Amino acid sequence: MSLRNLLLSFIPAILLAGGGTLAVHADEFTVPVDSTDEYRHFLAKIPAPRGLIVDRTGKPLAYSKTGKRLTVRLLTLADRSGETELAEAVEDLCEELRTVCPSVSTPDPESIERHFEHRPYLPFPVSRLLPDAELKALSGFGEDHFPAVEIQTVITRVYPREQLASHLVGFVGRKAPDQHGPYGRNEYRWPPLQGRYGLEKSFDDELRGTDGLVSLLYDREGKEVNREILKAPVPGKTIVTSVNLDMQELAMAQLEESEHNGAFVAVDAETGDILALASYPGFDPNEFVSSLSLARYVELGNQDGSPFFDRAVSGAYPPGSTFKPFVALAALSSGAISEHTKFSGPPSMWINEHEFKNWNDKHEGSFGVRYALLRSCNTWFYQAAMQTKQDPLLLAAHRFRFGTAPDIPLGKVSAGHVDESLPSNGRLANAAIGQGRLMASPLQMALAMTGFANRDRIALPRLVLQIQDPLSGEIEQAFPERSEPLGYDEEAVDIVREGMWGVVNYARGTGQRAKLEKPRVFGKTGTAQWPSRGKDLRAAWFSGFVDANSPKIAFAAVTEGAEDETMSGGRNSAPLAGEFLRSVYEEPDEFYVSVPDEPLTPEPSFAAPRGGQYAASQSEPGSQARSRSSRDGRTIVGRDRHPRAEPRPQPRRKRGFFARLFGGSN
Q1: What crossing angle do the helices spanning 425-432 and 390-399 adopt, rounded to 10°?
Q2: Angle at 398 between CA 392 and CA 399, to 5 degrees
């Protein structure tokens, strides 16, 4: 069914249905201008159908349709209940109805009395929207069984993929409850829906449409005897998102299979189009359409994994070692190091009276920046950061837009955090490995990776492609592609890219579980200590990009560990991203991607480190940065090169705060 037909197929049911009563009343009447003793006349607004929200291929993420709910004619019930109080009669009727329709609720007596006092001719609602099974069960009763009951047709909202895109699409709620007081001049036939979260809220004005107007006539018993549409409602606009629904589904499936809470973001590096924006666990937005109770809302919010929390957009995590490519680029571009500069990779270093560890407890030898990236050697990056100093590091963070909230039409978009200064070697060392106070969201990290994918520019995000007229399909507003220049020498970018190639494709790389033959994956693993709600948790990262065009996918995956659970980016998140990419490129037609016949980037070479556990007789040429090793293999940063870094005095003390800020494998 086309988008236009999907939107319009149910409108005749709203406009022409005779109230949906169990007994149809279709007599012809001339609508009087004023009410009489025999008939009561009302004007009511018809809430417009909300517009469609669709993915980039036109698959619906949210649409409107007709729903049914039960109402009671209080005049009829009062006439038949004799001396029984009306509120008691309604309660008895609802109790009987619940044996057939569990969706029936018990209204409070005050609402019944107010409704009967101020608007006795209008139907009194007693149920939520009825599931098909309850409607079918109710159809087995004749009109005489429930003479005071009517089935009212309303417009409702449907989210066909349930939790699949719940944080992205959001949900609606009733703009106001059913009214029971004096009848006003701008009454609605039933409560209209209003965007409360996600795109439903951000584009509420466009999705809402234009309300219609209906003339209604009721007889003495409250039976609707005539309806005339004075103005037909106009559906809301169609919102076309950048999301590929099949990729979104695949991302959610991989997150669920990982058995960890987390997020996965995939972006077209050329255009900035967000192809997948998955946060796990999610929630079913359909529950919010028919007035979610407070108790149920609290129950959902207290479920394991905090399903209302959008980890992809609102989450802020220490990026861990996924920040090292940006540190390497800052060091290269500032001239603090060259591609030939070597630092040693000991198992730990003493900096400012604190022990800073590598994730590997073996000495890795001496090597350059490419090998440092593929091995994710913490102690190498401590030295590189201290030699680079704060200004180039902070400049790189800001050029890749860390510390700035991505400009997308969703609420609570995290800006992460970048320090204003890094005044000590300890702070520099923490920043070098993506710890300390540095924070980033998965969306920020995926967008930052577009800079390395494109080499000369970073793509700015695009979540909505266009807004269309609901009837003609004409584009009323299109959102352009946007990007910003990086301002870095492309040779320096290429050196970092080669290191990221090695992370996934080199024998000693930490991200080999994401390896594909075609296309090649460039990436960076990361594991970060992540304090949350008083608990010391671990977040496992894998981010990077795919060496392909149409689209050139940049991505970020993060999975959260439980308390005291050992996590690693290479073990937990790299396989997740690898399976996602493998599935996409194994079925290129289904996912609208192209697979290059040959690698688009020449395969780089890597020199083995000098000394350490992976020592080789040959090492790449270049300068040797000064550091000195203690007898146990640890490095003490010398005063001559780094004035704030001092040798470790004896005897050994208890580990300090900085020593507890990092660790674990990458």
Answers
A1: 30
A2: 85
Q: Are 444 and 414 in contact (CB under 8 A)?
A: yes
Output the CA–CA distances (angstroms, integers) from residue 388 to 264, 334, 398, 636, 658, in the order listed.
32, 7, 16, 18, 20
Instruction: Compute the residue count for the chain.
Output: 666
| pLDDT computed for residue 81 by the predictor | 72
Cβ distance 343 to 383 under 8 Å? yes
For the range 642-645, what are the long-range contacts, defined as Cβ-Cβ under 8 Å and sequence gap of 24 or more? Answer: 642/386, 642/387, 642/425, 644/352, 644/424, 644/425, 645/350, 645/351, 645/352, 645/386, 645/425
Residues whose CB falls within 8 Å of the CB of residue 302, separated by 6 or more in sequence, listed in order = none
The answer to whether residues 53 and 199 touch, using CB atoms and an 8 Å cutoff, is yes
**What pLDDT is stored for residue 48 in this prediction?**
93
pLDDT the model gives residue 224: 87
Whole-model pTM?
0.85
Please name the helix (run of DSSP H) or strand (run of DSSP E) that holds residue 537, with its range, or none: strand 535-546
Give the model's pLDDT for residue 613: 62
Phi, psi of 663 (to 5 degrees): 140, -175
pLDDT tens digits, residue range 88-114? 889 989 998 988 889 898 888 999 999
pLDDT tens, 289-313?
Answer: 876 667 777 777 777 778 889 999 9
β-strand pairing of 635-636 with 628-629: antiparallel
Selection from 511, 478, 573, 589 nearest residue 239 by Cα? 478
CA dist 127 → 72, 94, 106, 149, 578 (Å)? 10, 9, 8, 11, 48
Q: Give the residue among 408, 417, 411 at the shortest CA–CA distance from 441.
A: 417
E strand intervals along 39-82: 40-46, 53-54, 60-72
Low-confidence ranges of the chain (pLDDT < 70): 1-36, 82-83, 142-143, 291-293, 612-666
Give how far the C-alpha of residue 91 lies from the chain's centroid of Cα atoms, to the nearest Å.
43
Question: What is each CA distance from 458 to 52, 117, 270, 448, 653, in whole angstroms?
Answer: 31, 64, 9, 7, 45
**Sign of the Cα pseudo-torsion (581, 325, 275, 197, in order):** positive
Q: What are phi and psi of 559, to 5 degrees?
A: -125, 145
The span from the CA of 477 to the CA of 414, in Å, is: 27
Strand 238-241 relative to strand 53-54: parallel, antiparallel, unpaired? parallel
Three-state secondary structure call for residue 371: helix
Residue given tokens 């106009």 in the structure block: 234
Tokens for 368, please give them: 């350059």
